[in-house]
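Exercise 3.2. Students should predict the tertiary structure of the chain below and write it as C-alpha cells, then compare their answer with the key that follows.

Predict this chain's 3D structure.
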Amino acid sequence: MTEASAARGARELFGARFGRAVDGVWLAPGRANLMGEHTDYNDGYVLPFALGEGVAVAAARRAGGRLALCSRQQPDRVAEIDLGLACRAENEFVGVPCGIMDQSASLLARPGHAVLLDCRSRASSQIPFDPARGGSRLLLIDTRAVHQLTAGEYGRRRAECEQAARLLGIPSLRYLTDCGDSGGLPDPVLRRRARHVVTDNARALSAAALLRSAADDVYPGIGRLLTRAHRSLRDGFEVSWPEADVAVEAALDAGALGARMIGGGFGGSVLALVPERAEDAVRAAVAGAYAKRSWTEPGFLQAAPSAGARRL
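Answer key:
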C-alpha cells in the first residue's frame, strides 16, 4: 500500500466513523532493532531503525483531554483513553513492562540511518546504516510463532534484572560495565541475565562504532555481532524460541553474515544480514528447514532503514 492510499483510507475511515473532517494524517513506521535487546528497560543502549512499512493515522482535535480511537480492523469499536496513557497503556493495560525503544525509534529515525539511543540519558545520535551500499540486504524473517509477551516471561526477565541490580547495589544493570562484576550474584540465573545486558550494551556500541568507521569489513563485523547477540539471548537471557533458532542456523549455513532473533522474544521475527548474492539461498534454506519440521511457512520482508514518523 502506498503512502497516498494509506492516507486516503485513514481519512475515509475517520469521516465515516466520526462524521467530520480531519486536521491531518500522519504515518508512524514499524521498527526493527539492529542491536541491544532487553537493554532499554535496564537504562542501556539500543540501535533500532525504522521500516518502510507503517500505520497511517487520521486525527482531529477534540475537547476534554481524551483520545477516541478506532481502527480499520474494528471500525465499529471506539476506545477512549486519557492523552497521558501511551506508555502506561502498554505497560499496565496490555501487561508488557517494556522500555522506550519502540516509540523512540519510530519518532527519531531517518532514512539510511539507525538511532543510537542511550535509554538512561535519552540522548540519541544518527548512525549511518545503509547495507545496500555494502552489497548486503536486511532480511526480516517472520517465524510465524506468535508473540507471548503477556504470558509472564517478559515481565519475569525485567524483574530478574531489577533484582540483580538491587543485589549489586546499583540503580540498574546499565551501571554494570564488566561481566566479572556480576560474580557477586548468588543466583546463576541472575548472573546470566546480567551478563547478557552487559554484553549487549557493548555490542550496541560496537555496532555503532563499526558503522561510523565506514571500513571495508563493516558488514561482516555487524554480522558477527548479530550472531553473538542471538546466542546471548538464547542461552543467557533465555528468550528465544525453536523457530527462531532454526531460522538463524539455516540462514547462517546458507551464507548469511549474521542473524538473530529480534524483539522481546517468545515468538516474532529474526533479522538476517545477507550478502545480496546469497539472499535467494537464505530464503530457500530457511523455508526448507521449516518444511522439514512441518512448520508453517515463514514470511520474508526486505527491510531498509527508513524515515521516522511524519505528517503526510
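Discussion points: The radius of gyration is 20 Å. The mean pLDDT is 91.
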